[in-house]
Specification:
about 200 residues; 10 helices; mainly alpha
């Protein structure tokens, strides 16, 4: 994930492939295919291989003996839907991205980090065709999640959305830009601004 985040996609793919090959069946293998292989392949534009990684993740999650057991820690169907949505976005499949992001957001508790992530990915999927809706979704996240609780990944998604909306004057877009301009910086473990 670190290699992918820094744009070293060849290394990210190698690490993801090794991890997936060594992962035990079920939840862990589903995680490695969805968290590591799927987004890396999507960012590389390798749609068919990304589809295969997704199929494996879905099959492994379904075969996991814990299934949807209450209290299961970690990876779940809403998170898988989020990774699907982001992969579809990277591959230019906007409608599929929207559908999967909607499913992820609907399965999450409003105001949680998972909900914020899914909502912001949904906003990115809507940015070209429905810029007002996209901006309004982002504003909703900013209204419901205090700046001190806004994760770095949410901040990155907000900035990406802001870039997508740059050439799209629409209702709420100026409001979103102003909110992002005045957004308090993240805080460190001691409560001090870290940026």
């Amino acid at each position: 994930m670190a290699a992918r985040h820094t744009g070293i996609l060849t290394a990210a793919y190698t690490y993801a492939e090794r991890g997936a090959a060594a992962a035990p069946a079920g939840l862990v293998r589903a995680q490695l295919h969805a968290w590591a292989l799927l987004p890396t392949l999507a960012q590389q534009g390798r749609g068919r291989k990304a589809n295969t990684a997704l199929e494996v993740a879905l099959a492994e999650l379904e075969a996991d003996p814990a299934g949807q057991a209450p209290g299961r820690f970690g990876f779940d169907e809403p998170e898988l839907a989020l990774h699907q949505a982001e992969a579809h976005l990277a591959l230019g499949r906007t409608e599929q991205a929207r559908t999967r992001a909607e499913a992820s957001a609907a399965a999450c508790t409003t105001g949680t980090p998972k909900w914020a992530a899914a909502t912001l990915v949904l906003a990115q999927a809507e940015a070209c065709g429905q810029p007002s809706d996209a901006a309004q979704r982002a504003l909703d996240v900013l209204d419901r999640v205090p700046p001190s609780r806004l994760r770095a990944t949410a901040r990155t998604r907000l900035q990406r959305l802001n870039g997508l909306l740059a050439a799209r004057p629409a209702e709420y877009v100026a409001d979103l830009r102003e909110r992002l301009r005045t957004l308090q910086p993240p805080v460190d473990a001691f409560g001090a601004p870290s940026a």
